[in-house]
Amino acid sequence: MIKAALKSLLGRKVRLLLSTFAIVLGVAFVAGTLIFSDTLNRSFTALFASTVGDVVVRPDGGTTTDGAPSTLTLPADLVDRLAALPDAARADGNVSAIGVFVISTDGKVVSGFGPPAIGGNWSDAPAGHGLPGLEIVQGHEPHGPDEVVLDERTAERAGYEVGDRVAIIPSTAGVEDVAELRKTGSDGGLAVKPLTPTLVGIAGFPSGGSLNGATYAAFDTATAQDLFLDGRDAFTDIWVTAADGVSQSQLRDEVEPLLPDDVEALTGDDAADESASDLLQAISFLTTFLLIFAGISLVVGAFLIVNTFSILVAQRSRELALLRALGASKRQVLWSVQLEAFVVGVVGATLGLGLGVLLAMGIRALFANFGLDLSGQPLIFAPRTFLAAYAVGILVTMAAAWLPARRTTRIAPVQALRDDVALPEASLRRRFGAGLGLIAVGLVDLYLGLFGDLPHGGWQTGSGILAILLGVATASPVISRPFLAAARATFARVFGAVGNLAGQNALRNPRRTAATASALMIGLALACTMAIVGDSAKASVDRSIEENFVGDYVVSNVIGQGFSPKIGDAMAKVDGVEHVVRERFSAGQRRGDRQGVAAIDPADVGRFELDVSDGSAAGLASGSVLLQRSFADDEDYAVGDRIELDLPAGKRTYTVAGIFEDNPVIAAPVLMTFDDFADAGFPTSDNVVILFTDDSPGVQDRLDAVVADLPVVTVKDQAEFAQEQREPIDQFVLMIFALLGLALVIAVLGIVNTLALSVIERTREVGLLRAIGVNRRQLRLMITLESVVIAVLGAVLGVVMGIGFGIALMYAVRDQGLEVISVPVGQLGVFLLLSVVIGVLAAVFPARRAARLDVLRAIATE
User: Fold this and answer.
1) Each residue of 340-361: pLDDT tens digit?
2) Angle at the Cα of 829 (from 498 to 721), degrees rounded to 5?
3) Which terminus, N or C, of the chain has the lesser number of Cβ atoms within 10 Å?
4) b/e per residue, 766-777, with b = 16+ CB within 10 A?
């Protein structure tokens, strides 16, 4: 039986190739995601290990919850005291800042759209355990306020060489604080200019590696302190290097007694692990995100495999019946089909693993465009990748082939004596009942996930959507009958006898037609859902801005980070500007969870048009806060209550002075004063500046001139601001569509596969049609119409379900500020039109194959 199964498989090479397509693509996505994930983890683990000392001394709360350095520092004299320890070889003070943007020679920001733009002082201190860190590979280290060092990748991307003037924009420092680094504006000094130091050195990792897309600009210590610490003789952290034979833990224990209570010492290993784990946890959604789409591809692929094996088993039913007549048992026949599935799974997983390597390289290149550059890190091939690839490929294939294989046990040996062998089919009524049951379970799950107060509602929502999709797919042979009947009648009226034949072929095996359409249905259902979510999100943003936009212009950083208060000062001097309102925001912690906080000048509360329903806006003062209504209700806070926050400078307790209705202009639910914000240890950089003007002609041109040399900062009116808020949504939806494109490719291959195998199955029938006068063009038209029926059926089911899923999801998040539900009718119409195109294209190969069949040989085929 094993020999017979293998010979049967090898005798049908075209069918074997077609049936492996789906599993190859599904496994490729799983393998590519795991390879990329392991590469990402290894890259950041190695990076952080080479960017810490043996012992790292830092203030408690030295960084904000978002990972940016706080304003807390260490006194410079602590460096000498630590360097004098018996077990210390040296101690080096570091100055670090985030938001130090390097501008390329063509005036564009090099990075910062994900990985940070880092600035600081140059140090040749060795990394922990003597690991090589950044070293000068060209030129020399910086000396004086007019010199800077860049990392290799940044210098290359920006187009700079040693000796060039480099444009740098520090977001947290006043660029006029260091006179030697400031160009004088031609308009009398009004325009804010970037720093323009000379590039004197390029740093890199001699043993290989990179900063993974981050940029690094290093000045000498005095200049870095002027730029990032307001000229204070202090450091953001200190590295202590261990003497020979001294462990990190020994040195840490020796360092700790010298430190004040608000300063901590960590071993380099602990500091690296903490930084790496925090970052990897923050970006872990990337792996989850990609694996979700790998799962979608596998589910879609499973439909194709089920369909393929159903057709293959149906075509071999007489052969299997002969095996039964020769003495093969039901179990032997069953496992012969499963053996074929195993071989297909192994072949598909092997090819998918190879394709997964290319896909991992593609994912790496894709994320490099968003700033996450892993080009300096070789791909990592962990054992789990190979295990997962083969486990997924083999198990999914064998599981998908199980139902067709089970049907082989119902083939009676006597059927081998018949010319026409029909494979027994399960009752459509039973399938319809099972499908309705799955739909009901899915609806309950979806309701609980969207509206129930469950800790893991996202999983329930996902399982509910999957159950509904599988339920509709199971019941689709019955659900689709009216559509297929209408299609047959329409085709007969428009295309005559050929159209009638096409319609009858689709109706003849509704189970196969519906199963093929289901693969396309799943892809389009999810695409339509995302189209509605994206369009609704944009409509909600537009309405929110229209209702809450204050002032005439908004100044903000295109990367979402802070920028120098000097920019707002310069804007205030522009003719036509009547008032400048600033907002700052960052994040601390409350009860162990991230807590966003915002700050404004109490004198500007009225300018934000806050609707304070409890308490008084005038109560916003030092030691008090205003809370957003939804946050106060969820956390059960009232006016007069005390709220404790864990901030970079330590725990702080504030009195709730008022509660205001939710307003998207305020970026966080806790609103405090600028003084309290600075006292908490947050940088004094502006995140948003709102300008009130007298609408005089040319005011925006004059405002644009202030930031003409600062590409990270833009001035926008209401329409431009709304467009800027919509752009991330568009990018996210496009990325979703690109990933869903893989599922749609599998679905198209499924249609091609089904039609091709159907032509093989109907070889004799095709020969008879040609013999009675059907020409090649008519035959191609018949198969094309069959393909269009399948594609349109899948599209209609997918669009209908996608509309339902999209509306349900948007209704569930209506309390999160997304109150508008918008259905992009035009886009959904394009999806339906695209399904017709897919149907026509999918029929090209099968129709061509059918038209080229030799008539006499086709008629003689058994």
Assistant:
1) 788 888 888 898 898 888 888 8
2) 160
3) C
4) bbebbeeebeee
